[in-house]
Write a structure and sequence with these properties.
This protein is an alpha+beta fold. It is built from 9 helices and 19 strands. A hairpin with a 2-residue loop joins β4 and β5. The protein is elongated and about 85 Å long.
């Protein structure tokens, strides 16, 4: 059994449903401290975070990962228990196999191999881990970054081990992500009997035209790097459950995934303008999950492209699709950020898996990225 596979099976076997870590970070710390990394625990409330760094010089290269996973869903739908790593037909099954314990296992092995060959490498290497990426993330990477920024400890290059690959390992790297803005709207009416609508105000009826306008709004047309901004309604709740009562309030939750053509302030202003036009009473709460970010051409992207070409023989594609990642907290510090990891076809699904053969490919890519950036030139 390969070192990467053995480690990944250990991690999958730990039931680290967000924000639990279930001892994953302890396993990883033990490996890295043996390699000369300095351990720093940065826990906040129920979230476990760790910052491990080897070296004090710049440039600083950082692997970023999360040890928490999403809940497994209905256990009866799994062909094998989600927290019992199982190999079938060349694939390793288990919750977190792809998102993102697979990436963590690969970069841990890659770091060990690189240091063994290049013990006096240039710059510094760091690993940042959190147990709350799949949840709200309020006490995870965002808090670690605040600590680092407070002491002016700057990351130059950050590689997030999120599952970015599409059809084959390394065919896509994420060089940016859209922003995510969440909204909770409460439309305020007057409850009453359905037989006496003149004595009530139905918040559903009042909001319906505004809902149509919000969902049909062309927020922007995107750009070279990002698709157009999208608004999606996720929840609508109103009423008491009785069929003869006009509800007093209606609650609507929606989310905007926005590109660099927009910002938080512009979205809020345009949303309020649409709602105000229709003249009903409402309350609106906002939560910014993250702003969009984009890493332009630079040393990190060049090193990743070259590494993938060296290991696989093919050229990769830069992309900004998908949801959000913790990279959104690193990019504003000025760091170059990319995401490069396993195939994403099974993430958050039952029977999540990763091809065993892909683990060695990804480990090789990560090691080659380190070589391209931090190995000292031969004399």
């Amino acid at each position: 059994m390969s070192e990467t596979l053995e480690l990944l099976k250990d991690l999958i076997g730990r039931e680290s449903v967000t924000p639990e870590d279930a001892g994953c970070q302890d396993v990883l710390v033990e490996r890295l401290t043996r390699l000369g990394f300095r351990e720093e625990r940065l826990n906040f409330d129920d979230t476990q975070n760790i910052w491990l760094r080897r070296g004090l010089e710049k440039p600083l290269f950082t692997f970023l990962g999360h040890t928490d996973v999403v809940p497994p869903g209905p256990l009866s739908a799994w062909l094998s228990p989600p927290f019992t790593p199982t190999i079938r037909d060349g694939k390793l099954y288990g919750r977190g196999a792809a998102d993102m314990k697979g990436g963590i296992a690969c970069f841990m092995t890659a770091v060990g191999r690189f240091i063994a060959k290049h013990p006096d490498h240039q710059g510094s290497i760091a690993v940042m881990l959190t147990s709350d990426e799949e949840g709200i993330g309020a006490n995870g990477v965002v808090k670690v970054v605040e600590v680092l920024e407070g002491r002016n400890e700057k990351i130059d290059w950050c590689l997030v081990g999120e599952p970015s690959s599409d059809k084959k390992m390394g065919d896509v790297i994420r060089v940016g992500r859209r922003g995510s803005l969440c909204a909770k709207l409460t439309v305020i009416g007057i409850q009453g009997h359905v037989a006496y609508p003149e004595l009530a105000e139905n918040p559903i009826h009042a909001f319906a035209p505004a809902l149509k306008e919000l969902t049909e709004e062309v927020w922007d047309r995107g750009n070279t790097f990002f698709p157009p901004t999208s608004l999606q309604v996720s929840n609508i709740n109103a009423g008491t459950g009785a069929e003869n009562i006009i509800p007093g309030t209606a609650e609507v939750q929606f989310n905007l995934r926005f590109c660099t053509e927009l910002n938080e302030a512009a979205i809020k202003q345009r949303t309020h303008a649409i709602l105000d036009k229709h003249g009903f009473k409402y309350e609106l709460q906002w939560r910014l999950s993250g702003n969009p970010f984009l890493t332009g051409k630079g040393a990190l992207i060049d090193a990743a492209h070259a590494a993938i070409k060296t290991v696989t023989g093919f050229d990769t594609v830069d992309d900004t699709g998908g949801g959000t990642s913790d990279g959104r907290f690193i990019a504003p510090t000025g760091a170059q950020v990319i995401e490069l990891g396993p195939l994403n076809e099974s993430i958050h699904k039952v029977n999540e898996h990763v091809a065993v053969a892909d683990l060695e490919i990804l480990t090789g890519i990560y090691e080659q990225v380190l070589i391209n950036l931090l190995a000292k030139p031969r004399a």
